[in-house]
Amino acid sequence: KKRIFSGMQPSGVITLGNYLGALKNWTKLQDEYDCLYCIVDMHAITVRQDPVKLRKQAKDLLVQYLAVGLDPEKNIIYYQSHVPQHAELAWILNCYTYMGELNRMTQFKDKCAKHADNINAGLFTYPSLMAADILLYQTDLVPVGEDQRQHLELTRDIAQRFNGIYGDVFKVPDAYIGKVGARVMALQEPTKKMSKSDENQNNIITLMDDPKVIMNKMKRAMTDSDTEVRFAEEKPGISNLLSIYCAVTGKTIAEAEKEFAGAGYGTFKTAVGEAVVAELEPVQKRVKELEANKDYLDAIIKSGAEKASRLADRTLTKVQKKVGFPPRI
Ligand code: ATP
Ligand code: MG
To answer: What stretch or stretches form a coiled coil here (predicted)?
Structure first.
């Protein structure tokens, strides 16, 4: 079986974007691939986090991974900080990554603009930690959204550079391209992506939003002065809602356009909201059940870390030897 690695930051509550762009697709991969799904808490502290909140968000994220249907028997689900090999390999890879390469990363530039008061070295070297995450497990495929493509490209460059010096140490991973229509945009600013760290709550729908809240946010979503429910570049708001509707219902854009021909935006938005509610309600119910089951969660946390650690050690030991670290006695 081919191996897949992916992760999510516990930097906020999971959004509909994370769900449709990543999580939902992950559940479809679990039978065909060997998957590791990490909760990348070490990445999350590149931006200042409140420790109490971060711990809660990490726990919530684990519960949400499970609630959407990721099976802990089929996948390795774990916290990044519980597997120290990530940090160890990241340090080594940092020494094989150029400043110039990191400087070109658009996410770094974006985050610098957003967090001008805290432009720390971790934010800068974020991509080498991400490379370590992926390369530690000899990953074949990485399902990433468009926003992570550049980082994956860099991971490949680092792997190839290292292999070029020391022989075949790392598998060079490929991007796993999921189905289209999975890029969800911010509801009130549909030209930028929906992001869980967005301060404007009306821009995002979270996995845990109440049905009423979802309907309300939908109502407030930005549209345009036209009245036609049609997918078009000049109609980013309506196009975004159409994509969401189709991703959730499995309908095609053409089918949806036909369904809402002449219906008006109000009717359309209500239908999108209801479709999203129907999709998320069972997930929310599962979350409640899982939250009541602390022992079960603890067992997953423990065994996930053990399984990941065992795999990670194989690669790390090889790398340490290649670069010339003395063997442990
Ligand atoms: P942050 O704002 O903290 O970066 P985020 O919402 O971008 O949060 P990440 O943890 O960076 O979330 O990404 C988790 C996964 O979700 C990645 O695979 C990413 O590509 C995907 N993703 C994030 N936002 C969207 C979106 N709007 N549409 C589709 N996929 C998304
Ligand atoms: Mg992101």
So the answer is: none
